[in-house]
Amino acid sequence: MKYAIVSDIHGNYPALQLVIEDALKCGAKEFLFMGDYCVSAPWPAEVWETLHSMKNARIICGNEEQYLRVPEGEDGQFEISRWCKNALSQEQRDWFFGLPNRMDLHCEGWDIHMCHSSEEFIGNAETGHYNVTWLRENHPEERVKREVLLREICMGLRSNEDFSEILGALPKGIYIFGHTHIQWHMQLENHIFINPGSCGLPLDGGECGAPYTLLTIEEGQIEVEERRVVYDMHELIGRVKSSDQYTKAKVWSEVIFREWLTVKDKMLLFLRFVEQYARGIEDTRRPFAKDTWEAAYMEWRKKNELISAQGTIL
Do 90 and 219 sit in the same domain of this protein? Predict the structure, then answer.
């Protein structure tokens, strides 16, 4: 059996289309979807339609689905969540809300365990150490080669005493998760860990494109192949700029553009900047008010332009 493992689509329907096409060409028979289907790119309804119509898919929820419950308001901070919520029908939102938190299946002697975050299986061994902040601090400028990233994560986990203790009590099996937007995998004897990265919003410092992972189980043997479908990010950005999302949630969209182009986290940096900016002008309104949100983005953009002039994208 060959599975295509896909996570963190974040409304990026063009990326999802490319991944499904590539996986089918590679012989995938079933798809495992690991959550976070909406919020970031302006095609949540198209993503829903695709997933809802697939007969050979197993689908669990992520943490971002909770943002489809955002209340109505005028703040800037949740403008993209509010837009996404209103872009979906109640039926579509209810379908996302009804997805299970985890799923287990069995294939040729292997138990496969699915959950959006690895914390369900290995505590904070991954999420607390090998996240987007770790990546930014350890690889601040250059693109990160896959072999370098995999080596650093695998060596780090092997030397982590807490992880070793958890591993000793963890049943044999294949553990699949997403959430960090960093693609990696590792096999330690009878334990296989797979994070396919983010199909729609990769933040692992690698090549621009849509990551996913193929898992093949044949006669009890395991093969894991990380794949990344390369496509034109500038063309994608152009499509977003012509969308209603860009009109209603321009700041969020602009920050996401920077993430697509650099393949690294910018949103956390921007949120920290907005907090500093709001404190500086003594604005205590939370969530961040629209005027403060937009003014902070203009200041952040100016800083960006200065740094970009020196050859770096913030």
Answer: yes
